[in-house]
């Protein structure tokens, strides 16, 4: 078996609509097709043909949706970011992203990678999930 790249991140959200809106309105993903699972959720896509990048499911402990191994068993995955430090996306238009973050009052940090190959923009999304967008320097 070989690994060819990232498939998706699955996040449990207490407020799925707020999390969806953040990824759509701020990060620039789009809501797309999702299989007819027996529990609610969203699949969020990047550019056409990218496949679903982020899967959102309820963070509702009481309903105990079985999504992945250990789901709903008090493993910490439903508390803030759990074991996820941050999610990183490839992006373009640093100025546009910074303008959207500023307009929404979202604190952010921008810095260059050592050597200047790319700019990194970090912010906190709903429920404390840390987002990084890496934008190559022209």
What are the main properties of this structure?
138 residues, alpha/beta, four-stranded mixed beta sheet, globular
What does this protein structure show overall?
The protein is of the alpha/beta class. It has a single domain, classed as 2,3-Dihydroxybiphenyl 1,2-Dioxygenase, domain 1 (Roll), CATH 3.10.180.10. The protein has 2 helices and 8 strands; from the N terminus they run βαββββαβββ. A 4-stranded mixed beta sheet has the order 1-4-3-2, with helices on one face. Strands 5-8-7-6 form a 4-stranded mixed beta sheet, covered by helices on one side. A hairpin with a 5-residue loop joins strand 7 and strand 8. The longest helix is centred in the N-terminal third of the chain and has 12 residues. It is globular. The termini are far apart. About 10% of the residues have low confidence.
